[in-house]
Fold this protein.
Amino acid sequence: MSRFFSSRYDKLTPYTPGEQPQDRRYIKLNTNESSYPPSPLAIEMAREEAGKLQLYSDPECRSLKRAAAEILGFSEDELIFTNGSDEILNFAFMAFCDDSHPAAFADITYGFYPVFAALNSVPYREIPLREDFTPDPADYIGTNETLFIANPNAPTGRELPMEKLKEIIASNPGRIVVVDEAYVDFGGESAAPLVREYDNLLVTRTFSKSRSLAGARLGFGIACPELIRDLETIRYSTNPYNVNRMTMAAGVGALKDQAYFERNRTAILETRAYTAEELEKLGFSVLPSSANFVFVKHEKIGGEALYRELRERGILVRHFSPERIREYNRITIGSREEMEALTAVLREILA
Ligand code: PMP
């Protein structure tokens, strides 16, 4: 740290992203990307836009809002677009948390929440998940904190049933509930329709997983117009051009190509069922997953050792070091061929 670094941040521990190695080709099952390329329409639209990169992007994201409103069924003033959903999550910490609105989230959840809290000097509390990694809804009722709930959760893949989520939202009318739906397209039920009923609900989503655009960085929020206006105040105060031209065009293409989206999503769900079954046959415990990954452990090999053995053999998965989950690995659901390669390598390691 230089002597110039602000004391506001000198205790900040930054987020550790999953590895994006450049040294060799891996079967990449570590950052929940899609193993399918973007829709051909998304690629074509981004390519056309590349010739206009001398011009700033539309700060109002009109083309995207129009497409999303039409295809996802919300009105344009219920939507805000950001540079990945990470950005809207940060905006939510900026807009809706402070000393008198502390944050709360599960002890085992998306690792960026405590980082955003620290970045924005927001006090926070971690709510322990139960032994089976499900949240106890009672812990979230009337807590008077700004709640961040990843649903389905990461890295566990477990889902909180919608009626429980609704009770939580209804019990905290004076506080915002942020429902992070990065993985909702893989079998979860969305809370987004509830934004018409609850003015304290913000739902965040991403194009990174189910729409194969992780590298484009595109996320969005769904909330009542008043909350969207607050978030727009933050966006216009940080970077109104947060969604670049090529990403905006790719996003419109990805939305319009619903058939491609449905096909890939269905393939991922089928491959998840296949993978869970194969891993169980090999003696793994596999948590039930509503996401595009499975969270697994094996009695015969520790979590970190398994991660290393797989890495040596060209397969990347994600290992986390916190005590409660150190025996686990999170494995992204890739293509059927990738998962067949994984099970073959696992068989070899376990032998
Ligand atoms: N929320 C959760 C739960 C995630 O796992 C991720 C992916 N790392 C994100 C949000 C952010 O994804 P992105 O910024 O690519 O939209």
Summary: The pocket of 4'-deoxy-4'-aminopyridoxal-5'-phosphate is lined by residues 84-86, 110, 150, 154, 180, 182, 206, 208, 214, 219 (CB under 6 Å). The first strand starts at residue 27 and ends at 28. The chain has a mean pLDDT of 97. Residues 258-281 form the longest helix (24 residues).
